[in-house]
């Protein structure tokens, strides 16, 4: 059996393990979602394009690194991209090593400078409409510094969603974490602990920088409304993981998951 197939089988088996058995061994069960060779098990979706179209070869793998590249773009035209892993998750720890490189593509939004995101509890890629810009999801917003100013990373943004922090429902789109600023092209390690809709914790380079709970669809958002009409529960206790393409080149060299039991 090829390693990739074996890894996917192991993910499914771990998710079925009894809690008492798994809790003693979870440090040994990390599974790589990115094989370092190609985009197997990942599905691209760009605004205005059918599911599966990797517009302008934006998502690619080179030298064992998953890249968000804009080499083939003349300028940015509002066609945001997301790369979905093809399996839904609920309880897990996610470990991502990322960095920003190069210059932002011309005509990219000013807010998208050194900006990417890891989307959690996302709607399925198949449920996105053709012209939808962002999946309804919880975004762990990744930001890089400009060399001078402070700019936190591992923030929370909420396209089509809300969540609870400090016992209050948060409806503001983006809230900054307490992280340090990371300038230049240095690699940054993000770890996210997700336990359904009970709690989500963001950790950057070993420091916990954000915690929240009760992730849920925003009943006033059109994309969320479509999902609710299709029968999706308002409480978000599971969903798809995706990476963004928002006009700034980004690299990912590690995307590992540790499935957890309840």
Summed up:
With 262 residues, the protein is mainly β.
Reconstruct the topology from this structure.
Blueprint: H1 3-15, H2 19-23, E1 31-32, E2 42-46, E3 59-62, E4 65-68, E5 81-89, E6 91-100, E7 115-122, E8 138-143, E9 155-157, E10 161-165, E11 168-170, E12 174-175, E13 188-195, E14 199-204, E15 207-217, H3 222-229, E16 239-245, E17 250-259
Notes on the protein architecture:
By secondary structure, this protein is mainly beta. It has a single domain, classed as Exo-inulinase, domain 1 (Jelly Rolls). Helix content is 10%, strand content 39%. It has helices at residues 3-15, 19-23, 222-229; strands spanning 31-32, 42-46, 59-62, 65-68, 81-89, 91-100, 115-122, 138-143, 155-157, 161-165, 168-170, 174-175, 188-195, 199-204, 207-217, 239-245, 250-259. The strands form 2 sheets. Strands 1, 3, 4, 6, 10, 11, 13, 14, 15 and 17 form a 10-stranded antiparallel beta sheet that branches. A 7-stranded antiparallel beta sheet has the order 2-5-16-7-8-9-12, with no helix packed on it. Strand 13 (188-195) and strand 14 (199-204) form a beta hairpin. It is globular. The two termini are 30 Å apart.
